[in-house]
Design goal:
The chain has 127 residues and is mainly alpha-helical. The protein has 3 helices and no strands. 87% of the residues lie in helices and 0% in strands.
């Protein structure tokens, strides 16, 4: 199953690592390492270097992924790519129309139920 949005994954991973950093930071500067905290500073530098390396690796991954996608797209002829663009546009328009139609039907159904309930209540009072 393909994930819908890769940037969402990176955002979630970023949040996770920030939270882990908070937990780790509370254990880095210890009382036994006072007053210059050599061990704690080394650990922080190592964490920062690791973070920078991970960002560089992610950048290389996404640049490579985009180049591969562009090569595939540019290798297509106009006869092949134009129907794909038309299909994707049509699909997105139909999806938006379907959502709007469902929302309209839901509101109309709830209005009809309320009107029917009011009508029945009026009939009961009139009888």
């Amino acid at each position: 199953m393909r994930l819908q949005n890769d940037s969402t994954i990176l955002t979630v991973l970023g949040i996770v690592f920030v939270q882990l950093g908070g937990v780790i930071a509370s254990n880095i500067y210890r009382q036994d390492d006072k007053p210059k905290y050599h061990r704690g500073n080394r650990q922080l530098i190592a964490i920062n270097v690791l973070s920078i390396l991970l960002f560089i690796i992610a950048k290389i991954y996404y640049v490579t992924k985009n180049k591969i996608r562009d090569k595939k797209w540019n290798a297509m002829t106009v006869e092949v790519s134009l129907p794909l663009v038309h299909f994707m546009h049509q699909f997105s328009c139909e999806a938006r129309r379907d959502v709007a139609k469902k929302e309209y039907l839901l509101t109309m159904t709830s209005r009809n139920v309320k009107i029917t309930q009011r009508t029945q209540a009026i009939r009961l009072v009139a009888v």
